[in-house]
Amino acid sequence: MTSIHAITAADHDEWIRLWNGYLTFYASEVPDDITARTFARIVDDQLIHGAIARGDDGRAIGLVHWLTHPATWSTDDYCYLEDLFVAPDVRGAGVGRALIAHVTGWAAEHGSAKVYWLTQEDNTTARRLYDRVAAHTGFTHYEIGL
Questions:
Q1: Where does the pLDDT of residue 1 fall: very low under 50, low under 70, confident under 90, or very high at 90 and above?
Q2: Does residue 138 lie in a domain region?
Q3: What is the CATH number of the domain that holds 108?
Q4: 100 is in which domain, residue-wise?
Q5: Residues 70-121: pLDDT tens digits?
Q6: Which residue, 139, 93, 146, is CA-closest to 118?
Q7: Between β-strands 114-116 and 78-86, what pairing exists: parallel, antiparallel or unpaired?
Q8: Which residues contact 68 (CB under 8 A, 6 or more apart)?
Q9: 87 within domain boundaries
Q10: 3-state SS assignment for residue 55
Q11: Separation in Å, CA 23 to CA 48, 110, 139
């Protein structure tokens, strides 16, 4: 059975392994200083929140990070699920669904109006899950790097 708990400083080595797997999956790189700052902010649990999933053997098998922000279309905050990663050898076993449910439960407890996230259009494996647990809004993401 998968267990999920808030990320703590003691999770660093397993978190970094999962984080690097996530970055590799998206063919991305994040400088070491940003990674260190990200982990510190998650452990601080004030603005960015994080949870780690563990399998029956205690091994870290997934991670999720999220944050909340005010919204113009609601008096309640929105919850943005920013990062979700499940180790490749356990995909399809319900870990991703459990991590999304963990964030959704947290967001409901903290008064968020909704949970939302982005993924790449060609992330078909994850999108099969997302289509079962959430509504696809039809929006397309744009950004300007500064």
A1: confident
A2: no
A3: 3.40.630.30
A4: 3-133
A5: 999 999 999 999 999 999 999 999 999 999 999 999 999 999 999 999 999 9
A6: 139
A7: parallel
A8: 77, 78, 79, 80, 107, 110, 112
A9: yes
A10: coil
A11: 18, 29, 24
144 found inside a domain: no
Contact status, residue 92 vs residue 62, Cβ threshold 8 Å: no
- Work out the angle between the directed axes of helices 32-44 and 12-25 (0-180°, nearest 10): 120
Alpha-carbon gap, residue 64 to 62, rounded angstroms: 7
Tokens at residue 2, please?
């998968």
- 63 occurs within a structural domain: yes
Mean pLDDT for the chain? 96
Q: What is the pLDDT of residues 44-61, one digit of tens each?
A: 999 999 999 999 999 999
- Cα 137 to Cα 21, 32, 62, 90, 118: the distances in Å are 28, 34, 26, 28, 10
Please answer whether residues 85 and 95 qualify as being in contact, where contact means their C-beta atoms are separated by less than 8 angstroms: no
Q: How much is the pLDDT for 32?
A: 97
pLDDT band at 35 (very low <50, low <70, confident <90, very high): very high
- Quote the number of domains for the chain: 1
Q: What is the pLDDT of residues 11-25, one digit of tens each?
A: 999 999 999 999 999
